[in-house]
Each structure stands twice: as C-alpha cells, then as structure tokens.
Amino acid sequence: MSSAPARAGGRLLLGFLWLLQKLPLAWQAAAGRGLGALLWRVAGSRRRVALRNLQLCLPEMAPPERERMARACFNWFGRSVLERGLLWYAPAERLRGLIHVEGDVGFADRHDGPVMWLVPHFVGLDIAGAATQLHVKRRVASIYQAQTNAVLDEAVRKGRLRHGNADIFSRGETAKPLMRAVRQGAVFFNLPDMDFGERDAAFVPFFGVPAATLLAPSRMARALGMKVQPVLTELLPGGQGWRVRFMPPWDDFPTDDPLADTARMNQWIEAQVRALPEQYLWVHKRFKTRPAGEPPVY
User: Is 225 left (phi over 0), alpha (psi -120 to 50) or beta?
Assistant: First the structure.
C-alpha cells in the first residue's frame, strides 16, 4: 500500500493530466518533449539502461548516435506519459479524431474464433488499447502490471477500462480468468516483448542477444485455435495525433514448434523496431534475465 504522501502526489499528477488534456495536442507534445529532456537528466538509471540496450542491439551505431537516439526515445516517452491524460479523460469523439487507424481493424469482429493481438512495447502502447476499444465491437482482455502507488493504479485501471468493453487482469493472478475471457469471446491484447524471468520462457535471440521470452503466445494460440494479428502504434509529430496499424493476420502461426514460433515473433518485432527505433521502449531491462553462467548486462 502506498504512503499518504505518495497518494497525495498521485492525485496531484492526475489533476495536472486532467488539466493538460484540455490543451491542443501540439502544446501537450511540446510539454512532453520537455518532460523527456528532464527525465534524461534526472533518471540516471533508466538513461543507462536505454544506452546499454542500444549498445547491445545496435552495436553498429557510433556512441554519439546511440546517445542521440536515446535522447529522442526519452522525448517520445515523455510525450506518451503526458498524453495519457487525453486517453484517460478526453471525450471519445476527440480520441477518434486523434487516432488514425490503418489496416484491417475489423478482422477481429469478422473472424469466427479466438483472436490475439500482438502489440510490441512501443511508447504509444496505451493508444493501441484505446483504439481497439473504440473501433472493435468484441470485448478486449489484457494483462497489466499493478502500480505501487494505489492512486495511480486505480487511475490506470479506470483509464484502460473507461470505454466499457475491456477487462484487464493483474500479472500476479493465474491465467485462468484471462483464458475464460478469451473462451467467452474476448480478444487477447498481448504484450510479448518483456522480460518476466525464466518461468514459461526460453532464451530466444532478440537483436542477436539471448532474451528471456515467454512461449505463451505460441502455446496459447495453438491451445485455443487463435488467429494472431500484429498491431503497431506510432506517435506522430506535433499535433498530428497517433497512428495505430492493424497488420495482416499471420497465416502460419502458430506451428507445432513453440520455440521456432517465438524466434519468428522476435524477428518480426526486431524488424518493426528497426523501422521506428526512437519510439521503442528502450528503458525496459529487456535482458535482465541471463542464461546460466552468463554475467549480468546492466
């Protein structure tokens, strides 16, 4: 349980986000870039994580170029933090005008069977969550990481559930409620590219580095007969809004080889990151878990 000062700080932050979302998006974007520049200076541990990730994943880059990219990533991340006020509080019609949806957004509604959206960790991840609820009739089910600050945790839950057709389950729960929701027709909004340790995972290359990667996307898709459709998010410059792309569903996924499926998934995510590297969540310790005998990288 968070302390009273932490709860008060959470309420102050939420009040600020509520006020900020009333401004034009271009103004919010500028404020977000300012927040990103501030975080670059004060969040030393995350700055070092981002630089280390870039060193591991893009070793061909010269150090000054990696620093430039890391700074840009912090700027985009700062935007994503402040623009959550829009996602949580702005009228749905305003969000519809800001979210530019591309691709086959109607696939899940047309498909007569379970569907999994595969959504990599770009900084605009929460925008995809809003887009799926605003443009898809089927219910959405996802997993979230509970926040240590009780006020912020409640705000995250309310913000992600505000459109009335979603369910989110804590990562600390068993998979049973999620599986039940999928069997009842919900689309699984799956975040596949984080390090959750060795349990139910394998060390699969990501940018050539062994990364603990959950085998669940392949196993779950095979067990439930799911079609897998990738979804990508992008923050657009200034006040132009956000882009959410619903990619063509994969025809040859899953197979009967979860390890090969997971390697293919990581290769696909890697290709998307190379296309938009400045908006990937480099601040996450993607390589925190190491194979036996290997030293830590952070």
Answer: left
Give me the residues paired with residue 102 across strands.
245
The alpha carbon torsion through 166, 221, 114, 139 (nearest 10 deg) reads: 0
Distances (CA, A) of 183 to 28, 110, 136, 188: 40, 16, 17, 10
Profile the chain (298 residues) by mean pLDDT over runs of 10 residues: 82 94 97 97 97 98 97 98 97 97 97 97 96 96 89 92 91 84 95 92 97 96 96 96 98 95 97 98 97 95
User: Which pair of structure tokens corresponds to residue 155?
Assistant: 């705000």
Q: Residue 54 is encoded by which pair of tokens?
A: 């870039």
The residue type at 286: R
| Structure tokens belonging to residue 21 | 């979302």
Please state, for a pLDDT cut of 90, what percent of the chain lies above it: 89
Domain boundaries, the chain: 4-10+97-279
